[in-house]
Amino acid sequence: MNLRFALAAGLAAAVCCAGAVSAQGPAADEDNLTVITSDRLTFDYQKQFALFEKNVVVVDPEMRLYADRMTVRFGADNKAQEIKAEGRVHIIQQDKESRSELAIYNLIQGVIILTGKPQVTRGKDILTGDKITFWRDQNRMIVEPRARLILQSEPGEDRSGLKGEAIRGR
Q1: CA distances from 45 to 5, 78, 130 (A)
Q2: Which of 98, 107, 142, 161 is least surrounded by Cβ atoms within 10 Å, i.e. has the fewest?
Q3: What pTM did the predictor assign?
């Protein structure tokens, strides 16, 4: 079973704006390992899915993911096609974090959708909405409805242009 965890690339990209989970032997490069732990794993080869339940933790060189449940669906080629993390989903990558109740990553389309009170933070800045959709390969996102971005300025930082003073003369 070759699952080199596409979730790392995809959901890390979601927090920010690969192939499959690897079952590597002892000679594997420790810096490239993705480790998934949970209280229970159900793998159904015929139905082409893996279900991780309770206390799901994904540790990858690029990110960490915590969830109550995670389902990975595979195609006929045994490559991951969709990853769904559910219940208290928390993704951490460097200085960026996201929290939601549901995160769905379509690997074929390169689209990540966060729903269920999604919130993305970077430093002190906070982005919220009912649904946050990221296109991984296009560095593009849509937040709808009720999009809200809170920008916290650093001491001494000039953000007067964001308040409208710089554009009044239009």
Answers
A1: 17, 9, 35
A2: 161
A3: 0.71
Alpha-carbon distance of 149 to 2, in angstroms, equals: 39
Q: 78 near 2, Cβ under 8 Å?
A: yes
Q: Which two tokens stand for residue 21?
A: 């989970």
Name the one residue in this structure whose structure tokens are 């979730």.
7
Q: Give the residue among 85, 124, 116, 89 at the shortest CA–CA distance from 5.
A: 85
Class of 6-167 in CATH: mainly beta
For 96, the token pair is 């960026």
In angstroms, the first-to-last Cα distance of the chain is 60
Is-contact 100 117, C-beta < 8 A? yes
pLDDT single digits (tens) 88-114: 999 888 888 999 999 998 888 888 899
